[in-house]
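Long-time lurker. I teach an intro course on protein structure, and each term I like to show students one example going from raw sequence to a predicted 3D structure in token notation. This year I'd like something fresh instead of my usual example. Would anyone be willing to generate the tokens for the chain below so I can use it in lecture? Attribution to the forum is fine with me.
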Amino acid sequence: MIDHLQLHGETQVGTFARVLDAQVGSISHHLRMLEKAGVVERVEAPDGDGRASWWRLARRSFTWSSNDYESPADALLAREAQRANVRHQLDLLQRWYRVSPQSEATGFSTDSLAWATQEELSDLQARLNAMVDEWRRGIDRDDGQERMPVFFFAHGFPTEV
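-- Reply from a regular --
Happy to contribute to a lecture. Here you go:
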């Protein structure tokens, strides 16, 4: 749902149900849970029809750490959310690699290894987020060019060599 909202903007519950092949009640439940977490918010229907439930992202980027939570149960949920997010990212990457030889669309891979403090790593994250936001704002979706959804992800973390 988050990916759909990032690409398509405000979306009606019925559209989610069709796109995700799920029941409207299930979609509504998940949207309410995401609303409680501050991830999505309700919006008025573009046509003013109050019978339809419309939603949008409450923010463009999401970061969290299990260290942000004092409660062991909340920290456990945050770690599971991190694992689920990585699985989702890798699933998208593997799906692309399976079809990329048949596609004219090219992707890229980048990685780097350096020495950094926690503050420097946080600075890198902030700079990358700002760069991606600037890049996204610079895309003129009304210029008549055909575009495809593009997924970008990067991870920066302490490691051992």
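Some talking points for your students: The chain has a mean pLDDT of 88. Residues 66 and 83 are 11 Å apart (CA to CA).
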